[in-house]
Fold this sequence. Notes:
The protein has 6 helices and 13 strands. Strands 1, 4, 5, 7, 8 and 9 form a 6-stranded mixed β-sheet that branches. The protein has a 4-stranded antiparallel β-sheet with strand order 10-11-12-13. Residues 1-33 and 280-289 have low confidence and may be disordered. The chain is α+β, with helices and mostly antiparallel strands. The longest helix has 19 residues, at 3-21. Strand 2 and strand 3 form a beta hairpin. It has helices at 3-21, 32-35, 83-86, 166-176, 244-249, 255-258, and strands at residues 41-43, 47-53, 59-68, 75-81, 92-101, 112-121, 130-133, 137-140, 150-151, 183-189, 193-201, 218-228, 231-237. The radius of gyration is 30 Å and the shape is extended.
Amino acid sequence: MRPWRSVTALLCAVAVLLLGGCGTRTAGGASPTQTGPIPWTTAEPSAVTAARLGADHRTLSIEARVPSGERPCVRDFKAVDTDAEYGSVPGRVHVQITFNSPHGDGRSGCTKERTATARVRLPEPLGERELVVDDDTVFTADGAEPPALRLCGRLGCHPPATGCTTASYEQAMIAVGAPMHSYRDAEHCDGTWLVLDFSWRTGPACDADDKAPACASRLGDRSFFRAERSGWKPFFESAAGGCTAVQRREPAFPTALCASLKPLSSSLHPSYPPPSPGGTPGGSPATAR
Length: 289
């Protein structure tokens, strides 16, 4: 055997061992699962957008958003009345929409969405009951234009009337985007205008009797609202006391609701001055005013 053939054979053997030592990944970094069959899994729609009630008052047509692409992305798309299996809730009908799809695998090409319609026939007329789809989307026939059902909002199918009530204040907190688990600290309301002071915890989870300083860490804000048909609508935020700031924004805001307002503490509502024009990166951090 000539020497170059021996060297060649040796190099080939080393190459085989090196490739074998790198596992089963192939060129391009793909693993067997990335090159094998694309799995289809059970999924729920990203959103349920509309529902219609048939002339028999029992057949529901429900529209939902499902994956879409150049190849088939959905099969076994169906709506099922789950009350028979899981038990009914008075005043409600529960329906679940599911389908099978390969969209969880990036190779599927199911990167877009389309609207699909699923139908289900209830064992009895819907009547005045609410339709709950996939646990968190609710429709009602009350106030709807048949055959459509009305999509209910975060405050339910019958939101509280705008006013000086706890339920109405909760709507205001949602409207202003208050952080989860916020507390209302003070309300000033006359039915047309509203001021809300609220705060939220920023420290670690603590026991009720834990006196550690971090457990009392909070931030807060103050928002001003006007009443509209859809509920309380925020129009201004300010930590300042008195009426000057809010009446500069809205002269009609009543003095009776803002004259007694105290400034929010700097610890609750810290503010930071803009960086100095001559400042340099990595300089001293701004301090709360």
